[in-house]
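Sequence, structure tokens reproduced for absentees:
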Amino acid sequence: MIKNQKGFIYGDTIRKAYGFDGATVHGSIRTNDAQVELPVPYPFSSYGPVNQRAAADYAEAQARIQAGNALHEIVHLAGRNGYSDFALARTVAAMRGVEPPNFSGLPYKEAVRRASEYWGYALQAACKPK
């Protein structure tokens, strides 16, 4: 659905807003303008002759990171109105049977980052190859 709407792009929205690389979403599936924005990947750098194995390992790591970013953002777009990082963090806490994390008192940008990391780490753990 996302691919047939506004699709997947590379951009730097999170870098500009937060000062670090990250992915985000724009629009929604409901309004037919869903888009996933992934951070621009860093190119492989080598000093001297390129080590083909190191370059392949780097490319594999970049692909794994981007796949994780894409899945994280696709989850945001699920549901009728999408899901915020805060709602997803509360859901993970409920699934674990623990109190939801408390982000009150934090600046908004820091609270969003921590909520995103909280449920994002759970997603990574669930998707880690066994």
Summary: The mean pLDDT is 93.
